[in-house]
Design goal:
The complex is a heterotetramer, with two copies of chain A and two copies of chain B. Chain A contains eleven helices and 14 strands. Chain A is α/β, with parallel strands linked by helices. In chain B, strand 7, helix 9 and strand 8 form a beta-alpha-beta unit. By secondary structure, chain B is α/β, with parallel strands linked by helices. Chain B has twelve helices and eight strands. Chain B has helices at residues 15-40, 55-62, 78-84, 88-95, 129-142, 161-172, 192-195, 202-206, 220-237, 264-273, 276-286, 291-314; strands at residues 70-74, 119-123, 149-154, 177-183, 186-187, 190-191, 211-216, 241-246. Chain B is globular. Classes of the chains: A alpha/beta, B alpha/beta. Chains B and D meet through helix 6 and helix 8 of B and helix 6 and helix 8 of D. The structure holds thiamine diphosphate (2 copies) and magnesium ion (MG) (2 copies). One thiamine diphosphate sits between chains B (76, 124-126, 153-157, 184, 186-188, 253) and C (29, 58, 60, 82, 86, 89).
């Protein structure tokens, strides 16, 4: 095991897969000359050449459309959209073309494409640069959507995504790139399945159902709560579509209480979808309504103090847990 | 740029080749007429966009391609498919949503795909096929397959941002492709001069430094000449071309459209004087082909269309298991993956 | 009262508001020369002139972007997107520009814009033309989203939307345009509030929480169920954002059982959002998990038989009710 | 089209006018330098894109507008705002996310909006301001307000579909607007010649039949000449123009960018030889303005920037109630409207 950053983990995944498979190419804005907006792609062009690592014009629809066509023609493109906020300009290609191609063409073609993009707020980037829109894509059949929270998962899921025969949206987080974590030594092959979540911390009193950067907030909250005798189980759902529902249900069968924690907007989003599924299949195991910690239902404000109030922090989770866990536990 | 015209020598083609081209145009015409009937009878649902009137573009362009080459198109793609080699039976079955359809009935009229013959999709979001075509061309360039990618779209599609982004990329990356705009003067009810701030694509091509040719889309041999040059440029020099083929759809936008936005006379003039099949028949006659031969070709096409309809009629609907088949390669890719217990 | 179609009701709304307010203009593809794709705008250009009723080039981003700018400049544009499937091409303008403008510009501007568009499947229009993506937009703060089911509501809500100071997405249904219903006589002014649903049929046994075309399916199902003694309450949620939550909660306080009925995809969609809210605020009133009748989680198939199986029909609702309502009732 | 050059007569402007223009350029320069410092000190968060090097474009263009006219821009809009009349104090306060900011601290550096002065938004989705600008222009045309709408964007924005759709509509509907592309040779790290398949916007304008002018964006008076023509065309003839202003950003794309994709020498050459403020100072000197006067102007600008920073420093953060204020006009527009009981 080594300790590397989330950014490095992603880069390693691409390097290894590019070395392994000539069909893998990487395209996007500023991935070469600029060195990658978040430096994820740094050095790839020098190593693999500019036929395989391609800076594109500033035009998201053509980036994704070209990647889709190349994938349908048998390549394994990894398209980088600079942030998920710009993916709206490519949403038609993702939803109407790529997600439907195999089905509407009667199984004659597949779209082995990876679209990588960071989401998330918290760095004062303002209303247009702080969104978390994974539920848009996860709503649509025809693709997989994953959101790794650790360097280990970032590398393992990106490698799995590149090898996958279907379109995978790998949604990163702008504030995770510098986060460090353990990954196997170079040369030790591994992938992380795209349809499995993972329990990050065991606990008997409440299940924190979460994903992406919020996993880390939940772990911090759980540490804090442990001091008062409340044991929270942190369930990293990382697979958004297909969702690892049993993982959540098993946890709730044990704890009987759940809080969904996410950074995005509350209404008609990912967390409500997860909650609805847990209710649907785990109703009898629930002793209380599921709590929901989310970003505030507003465009992201710029001002530091407002932004801080707009996105969940550790204490929001702690408060939500205290509200839902009966006093007898927290004694 | 003047509109290219073929000379009367009939382009150095053999009699068989000429008659085959003629057959292909008739096949499209008769097939589409039959499809229109089946739609009226309720055997075809949804939208149905006929290619009648534009046959010379599809036949002229695609007959110059090789089988390995790629064709992408819009919802008005039956003609392109037939020329590229799609079996008319399977095509009609697809239009009727039958299990024997080229996409097993799951795509329908707007989404024809025939992997074997390189007909790589009818797309029904206007303009969206252009970026995807760039991707096919990029793959061909990267893998040195020497394939040409040809993408068809309408005058309306030019208005979409996708056109702009695709044109720039194709020229910038020197992609081996041919953009074919079938300018049939209308996008639904919108006359092209009300939608385009300039009335030609020539300056649009120049905006990207791309090669451009305008061609009379009713003149089969002229289309073939233009196609040849563009295809050679793509295959031998890896350079894209934008072709503007002037044509006219003789029918409404779709079967639901009475075409009230254009005058009956205008349409009638085109049908009478500019029918690409009649124009080509005239040339064949002038070159010595007799009427009986021409009639036999039409008859054969008519029969093929009939046969296609019969085939579709006699075919079963897809099995209900198809409803959730082939959403993705991975059948566990569906939502709510459950752990094996 | 008169009986007119949904289509006519929408047209009347625009006519009345255009006559009342010079700032109202209508722009979109084929709304004039073609007579309106679904004939909703037919005749408006002749009546109000082509300065006010504007056929646009085939380009959704500019249609919506122009309408946004005009709205910010004080006009009251009604933009027609031919179908919601094409709205993906304008989603950046809707979400990143219009929904955020007032907030990120500190309240200095408003966007009194209406975007009208039909959604829905069921007419064999295939995978790219049969979607119901309202949850995408309803997820995003900064706009209102409504989905009228009747001519009365279509007219009243469109009028209210045009008068509203904020952006309203009015999502119609391709299969409702020909549906007839009662509306007040010409000259009788009325609007329908954009934040209120309505109980369409009272019942004590189960609440059918629904909207748009599914309201009609629920009413049919309720008729049928009544024959076996099951009284279903049909709750038309028509206001998707802001949602009239109390309406649903009041109904459930009475019935203790609910089924959400929608035509869209199940996961991370509108129905799951509604269900999650009902659970969150009405948990103690629920005797059973909420049922969910939805479109099948697949791109829309073209074939007639497959398409029929892909979208909910009356009997799907009846079956769902029978599963959730205890036997003692259905005696 | 040759690049227009102003003649040495200093364009018939009075001494006061000339010095005022000079001041405006210095104000931008000093303001942006100060903003850069505040960013480094952590007082400004998020992204910060400085306008340094491009001052002559914003000043030349906007100084020809009337107050009632509209300006829309990108995230690189501080300069445009200052020329259009935005109070530097309120601007700096906005950058620092303070309650006294022009948007009450809620927008930040990329989203400046100043209704009173017609600075109608910095937009941070590249290209998205162009369609919106068309809407403002349409409203002006419809209401006969005689307003001109000017929209600024970069060379990178030209690649987006939004550019294409907006250009076509503007020309088609003869919208009274001016498109100003500030071609600073890079979009982030992407050199323009690697992104554009042609190396000029002239054919791009021709693609839509739109008037086009190229101008040396470092030459304030040349910019003013060009602006005047375009604005007159918009105001008097309701015809749009595309202006390509050749310029250079002296700093990185944003404060986070060390600009490793271009050589130090290249940037140095521009700074040394093509600084728009020094070039204009030279002309003023040649026209008889003495160094003390010039220095005083710079001093005044420096002081204004300092004052702005002090003002921002001394301003409070927004009240927490602002978090959910002004999402929409209708405060009950928030989700989950509850019935009054
Ligand atoms: C993005 C998008 N907008 C609108 C439509 C509806 N629509 C389908 S075909 C069409 C007209 C297209 O005209 P053109 O490109 O000229 O092709 P033609 O039908 O003439 O072959 C329109 C507006 C669509 N399918 N996709
Ligand atoms: C749609 C979109 N894609 C990508 C970005 C990220 N981005 C911000 S600015 C920029 C470069 C823009 O370059 P240009 O238009 O030349 O303007 P300049 O920064 O040079 O003023 C990019 C890629 C964005 N904000 N929006
Ligand atoms: Mg057309
Ligand atoms: Mg630039």
């Amino acid at each position: 095991m080594r300790t590397i950053t989330y950014r490095e983990a992603l880069r390693e995944a691409m390097r290894e897969e590019m070395a392994r498979d000539q069909r893998v190419i990487v395209i996007g804005e500023d991935i070469d000359g600029y060195g990658g907006t978040y430096a994820v792609t740094k050095g790839l062009a020098d190593e693999f050449g500019r036929e395989r690592v391609r800076d594109t014009p500033l035009a998201e629809e053509i980036i994704v459309g070209t990647a889709i066509g190349a994938a349908m023609a048998g390549m394994r493109p990894v398209a980088e959209i600079m942030t998920i906020n710009f993916a709206l300009l490519a949403s038609d290609q993702i939803v109407n073309a790529a997600a439907k191609a195999r089905y509407m063409f009667g199984g004659q073609v597949s779209v082995p494409l990876v679209v990588r993009m960071p989401a998330g707020g918290g760095a004062q980037r303002g209303a247009q640069h702080s969104q978390t829109l994974e539920s848009w894509f996860a709503h649509v059949p025809g693709m997989k959507v994953v959101m790794p929270a650790t360097p280990y998962d970032a590398k393992g899921m990106l490698k799995a995504a590149i090898r996958d025969e279907d379109m995978v949206l790998l949604i990163e987080h702008e504030l995770l790139y510098g986060v460090k974590g353990e990954v196997p030594d170079e040369g030790v092959e591994y992938t992380v399945p795209l349809n499995r979540g993972e329990v990050r911390r065991e606990g008997r009193d409440v299940s924190l159902i979460t994903f992406s950067r919020s996993v880390h907030l939940c772990l911090q909250a759980a540490e804090e709560l442990a001091k008062e005798g409340i044991e929270a189980e942190v369930v990293d759902m990382r697979a958004i579509r297909p969702i690892d529902l049993d993982l959540a249900l098993d946890s709730i069968a044990k704890t009987h209480r759940a809080i969904v924690v996410e950074e995005g907007w509350k209404y008609y989003g990912t967390g409500q979808g997860m909650a609805a599924l847990i209710y649907e299949y785990g109703f009898d195991n629930l002793d209380a309504p599921i709590g929901h910690v989310t970003g505030v239902d507003t465009p992201a404000p710029y001002a530091k103090n407002l932004e801080k109030a707009a996105f969940p922090v550790r204490n929001d989770i702690i408060d939500a847990v205290r509200r839902i866990v009966p006093q007898r536990v927290a004694r | 740029m003047a509109i290219s015209k073929s000379d009367i020598s009939l382009a150095g083609l053999s009699r068989e080749e000429l008659l085959d081209l003629h057959y292909r145009m008739w096949l499209i015409r008769r097939f589409e007429e039959k499809a229109g009937e089946e739609y009226t009878l309720g055997k075809i649902g949804g939208f149905l966009h006929l290619y009648i009137g534009q046959e010379a573009v599809g036949v002229g362009m695609i007959s110059q391609l090789e089988r390995k080459d790629n064709v992408l198109s819009s919802y008005r793609e039956h003609g392109h498919a037939l020329v590229k080699g799609t079996d008319p039976n399977k095509l009609m079955a697809e239009l009727c949503g039958k299990a024997t359809g080229v996409s097993r009935g799951k795509g329908g009229s707007m989404h024809i795909f025939d992997a074997k013959n390189g007909l790589l999709g009818g797309y029904a979001i206007v303009g969206a096929q252009m970026p995807i075509a760039c991707g096919y061309a990029l793959a061909a360039q990267y893998n040195h397959t020497n394939q040409v990618t040809m993408v068809f779209f309408g005058d309306g599609a030019v208005d979409e941002g996708a056109f702009h982004e695709a044109m720039n990329l194709a020229e910038l990356w020197k992609l081996p492709m041919v953009f074919v705009c079938e300018n049939n003067l209308y996008s639904m009810g919108m006359a092209v001069q009300k939608a385009w701030s300039v009335n030609s694509l020539e300056p649009r091509a120049a905006a990207y430094g791309m090669e451009y040719e305008k061609v009379d889309g009713m003149d089969l041999l002229a289309v073939r000449d233009t196609a040849k040059r563009a295809i050679d440029r793509a295959r031998n020099e890896s350079r894209p071309t934008l072709i503007e083929a002037l044509t006219y759809r003789f029918r409404g936008h779709s079967m639901a459209d009475p075409a009230a936005y254009r005058s009956k006379e205008e349409a009638e003039q085109w049908r009478l004087n500019r029918d690409p099949i009649q124009l080509f028949a005239n040339r064949l006659r002038a070159a010595g082909v007799d009427d009986a031969t021409l009639q036999a070709i039409d008859d054969r096409a008519t029969q093929a269309a009939e046969d296609a309809a019969t085939f579709a009629d006699n075919s079963p609907f897809p099995d209900l298991s198809e409803l959730t088949a082939d959403i993705m390669v991975d059948p566990t890719g569906a939502i709510a993956w459950r752990r094996p217990r």
